[in-house]
Amino acid sequence: MVNLTVDVKEQAGPDIVFDCPACGERNVAGHTSENIETGKLLHFIPVLQLRHSWVTCSRCGRKFASTLPLSQLAGADPAVLQRAIRYRAGGAGIAMAIIALLTCLVPGLGLVTSGIALWLVRGTDGWPKKVGVLAMVVSVALAVCVVLLFAMDHFGA
Predict the structure, then answer these.
(1) Is residue 15 located within the same domain as residue 67?
(2) In what order do the strands lie in the sheet with 85-86?
(3) Across the strands, what pairs with 36?
(4) Which of 10, 56, 59, 83 sits between 20 and 30 A of 3, alpha carbons compared?
(5) The domain containing residue 63 runs over which residues?
(6) Which residue, 152, 102, 157, 98, is CA-closest to 129?
């Protein structure tokens, strides 16, 4: 048996001034933070590290994913900050969400396309994320049904 663990460290960052895409407030304070998740084998051998930066609007309380690391958020130009804050899904995420919905009834392929769609729309709001989640739920349910039918046929239940 392989023992995998995940250590999560959260670090608060400096406050920044940005234009909130959710509430529309301009020049509002944003609280920054960063999560670092380290996957470890046997509790001490690091095998994977994921870093997530966040900006929380002090006005509406919405939390946005940022493409910039915490170290670059503080001194970033306002125009750079606007591009770094993920709120709306991009064109690739929208297209992949539609493809995921169209392929969710194909066992295996639906899981792959919906997984990619959810990766592309992570940290965003709106219908592409909802479509990606719906496609993933349908794909997982279909995969479970296929596995159960295969098991019943194979084991003669």
Answers:
(1) yes
(2) 4-18, 28-41, 45-57, 63-66, 85-86
(3) 9, 51
(4) 10
(5) 4-86
(6) 98
Q: Which residue reads 């739920």 in tokens?
A: 137
The two structure tokens encoding residue 131: 């479509």
Sort 6 into a burial class: Cβ within 10 Å, 0-12 / 13-18 / 19+: exposed
Residue of 121, 66, 130 whose CA lies nearest to 91: 121
Q: CA–CA separation, 50 vs 147, rounded Å?
A: 31
- Please say which residue of 71, 86, 101 terminates a domain: 86
Of 2, 85, 90, nearest to 40 by C-alpha is 2
| Model confidence pLDDT, tens digit, residues 6-25 | 888 999 999 999 898 888 88
Residue 98 pLDDT > 80: yes
Judge whether 109 and 74 are in contact, CB under 8 Å: no
Give the pTM: 0.64
CB-count burial class (<10 Å; 0-12, 13-18, 19+) for 68? middle
